[in-house]
From TrEMBL:
The organism's place on the tree of life at top rank: Bacteria
Species of origin: Ureibacillus terrenus
Protein's name in the database: IS21 family transposase
Amino acid sequence: IRKYFMEQPKQTASRIRGVQKLLERYTVYEIAQWLDKYQRWDLTPHEIGVLMEAKRSEYPAKWEEAYTPSVLVDYETDLHVYDQRLCPSREGGSRA
């Protein structure tokens, strides 16, 4: 982190304030580890926080495919039975 502060001497004070805000969400170790890994000394603390948050976020879980019918239709399929399985009702199908 020391190297990050000394990279641009004119911005040292603003970088210190920015890193203090980053310390509300991350540890010093996490920030130092991120800086060592990516070597992005030119970024502002706000940009570092955004990139660290993007790495921390998780992608949503994959959805199961629920659109495949339980009965496959071919030329021998009895469409009345197929209709009853897809849309069961008291009368025995959606066309009743």
